[in-house]
Amino acid sequence: MKRLALSLLATLTAICNGHAAESAPEALLRKLMSLAGSSSQDCGTVAQPDDRDAAVGCASHAAASGSAYRFAVQLQSTESFIWQGAARDEHGRLWVVFYDSNRSDGPAAGPTLSVLQCREIVFALRNSDDLECKPFTGEP
């Protein structure tokens, strides 16, 4: 009986954790590819609760060498999991892309995909705000 209870507990834990580790939305991946370009380095997608250090390291290295890159990370919001991605094209233009499938104005509203062009992206390794986009101020 004890073995059965432990087996059931392990199965339920796996099911609950399995929800978090979903794959990145296709709309987000297509947008990142269109911004960064088809020859950009794919630094990967990281679902919660996986370690994102490798993806951030890949993007940081690509940025330092002047190369195009793209990657996405899953974040926990107050009501759902959301995705945040970063892209750099071969000309050095930078973007952060946000994807939220659970809008606050109801499920009938559908997911949102927002793009913000940045003058600089700051990467945080273990922080709730993994990608800080420093926007253009309007002055040269």
Topology of this protein?
Layout (H helix, E strand, L loop, with lengths): L1 H19 L5 H11 L4 E6 L6 H12 L4 E8 L4 E8 L5 E7 L11 E7 L1 E4 L7 E4 L6
Parallel strand pairs: 1-2
Antiparallel strand pairs: 2-3, 3-4, 4-5, 6-7
Describe, in plain words, how this protein is organized in 3D:
The protein has 140 residues and is an alpha+beta fold. It has one domain (24-134). Helix content is 30%, strand content 31%. The protein contains 3 helices and 7 strands. The chain has a 5-stranded mixed β-sheet with strand order 1-2-3-4-5, with helices on both faces. Strands 6-7 form a two-stranded antiparallel ribbon. The N and C termini lie far apart (71 Å). Mean pLDDT is 79; it is low at 1-20.
